[in-house]
């Protein structure tokens, strides 16, 4: 049996302290996945190193995501600076129609 050292386990556990999660508040044993009940209220829970404790409340999935991932919302407000594709022929680019016609006729 390959047991990990206790110090490594404690580091992994302590790294999660303060982590938040949103749990949908649905009745019964129904589905609890967030995408199935986006309008259901959420309980925000915080990991204290031993158990999940109540931390807050969100009215729906969108509000819960704003609480859990505040850096994502800030990044969405800044303009995107993704590079635009320039001219050229890369492996991922579709060949021009003239070169496709040549390659199709050569295979026949």
SSE layout and pairing:
Layout: H1 6-15, E1 20-24, E2 42-47, E3 52-58, H2 61-68, H3 70-77, H4 97-107
Antiparallel strand pairs: 1-2, 2-3
Helix content: 25-40%
Helix vs. strand class: alpha+beta
Q: How would a crystallographer describe the biggest sheet?
A: 3 strands, antiparallel
User: How many E-type strands?
Assistant: 3
- N-to-C SSE string, H for helix and E for strand: HEEEHHH
Provide the gyration radius in Å.
Answer: 25 Å
Oligomeric assembly: single chain
Helix segment tally:
4
Strand proportion, as a percent range, falls in: 15-25%
**Strand ordering within the main sheet:** 1-2-3
Query: Shape, please?
Result: extended
Q: Low-confidence parts, pLDDT < 50 over ≥5 residues?
A: none
Mean pLDDT: 78
Distance, first to last CA: 61 Å
Structural write-up:
The protein has 108 residues and is of the alpha+beta class. It is 34% helix and 17% strand. The chain has four helices and three strands. The chain has helices spanning 6-15, 61-68, 70-77, 97-107; strands at residues 20-24, 42-47, 52-58. The chain has a three-stranded antiparallel sheet with strand order 1-2-3. The longest helix has 11 residues, at 97-107. It starts with 5 loop residues before the first helix and ends with a helix. The relative contact order is 0.12. The mean pLDDT is 78.
Short description:
The chain has helices at 6-15, 61-68, 70-77, 97-107; strands spanning 20-24, 42-47, 52-58. It is of the alpha+beta class and 108 residues long.
């Amino acid at each position: 049996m390959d047991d990990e050292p206790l110090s490594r386990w404690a580091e992994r556990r302590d790294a999660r302290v303060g982590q938040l999660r949103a749990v949908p508040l649905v009745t019964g044993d129904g589905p609890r996945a967030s995408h199935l009940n986006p309008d259901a209220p959420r309980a925000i829970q915080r990991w204290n190193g031993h158990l999940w404790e109540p931390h807050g409340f969100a009215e729906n999935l969108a509000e819960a995501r704003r609480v859990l991932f505040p850096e994502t919302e800030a990044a969405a407000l800044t303009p995107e600076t993704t590079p635009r594709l320039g001219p050229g022929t890369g492996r991922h680019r579709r060949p021009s129609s003239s070169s496709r016609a040549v390659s199709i006729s050569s295979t026949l």
